[in-house]
Design a protein that fits this description.
- The structure is a single chain.
- By secondary structure, the protein is of the alpha+beta class.
- It has one domain: Nucleoside Triphosphate Pyrophosphohydrolase, CATH 3.90.79.
Length: 230
Amino acid sequence: MSADPTPASTTEFRALAHARLDGFERAEVPEAPGLRRAAVALCVAAEPEGPLSVLLIRRAYRGRNAGQWALPGGRLEPGETPRAAALRELHEELGIHAEESDVIGALDDFPAASGFAITPFVVALRDLTELRPAPDEVHSVHRIGLRRLAEPDVPHWVSPEEAVPGGLPPGAAPAPPTGIRMLQMRFGPGMTIHAPTGALLFQFREVVLLGRTPAESRVAHFAQPDWTHH
């Protein structure tokens, strides 16, 4: 059995992420009429007496994106930079005070079907003592271990029909095949994540954890399920 390739400490992760992101030529979504911008944090922290993991949330069951899997983040405020927005949202949603020096770098903008261009920032926390989720925005907080994220059985490619939550209704006929395949990041029972969040986790895995080249790990073309289009 091969050794675990994922870093074992925050110090190791920061060194690895810097090495792989400092030279990463990220793809940006250009300005366009009607385009809105958002930012999210791929926040890496050590579990209490455990391995490193990425923080994931399930949004509150009300308002925009009710009940969906997400990374901490949201839309930019007027005059705000994407980096500042990611750090602000991390604090507002989870009570985490991250410093500028905790931001390692950014991955590709993702052009979401909702009309937002999402900029993901990789954040490595030196210390995470307490989470304070905002109940009006966050239903629950989850951790995805870096080792699990890097495992080969996590990414799956399915047809749009297979991406319907719970499968097709009884008696419903599947739509004609289109040739489109959707990414599913399958972390365990009840935890299957699609784009945009699944795409951002996939690129983080490919670039930062597995050392793939930008050409091997672009995600802007990944299709999204219909329920994420708002």
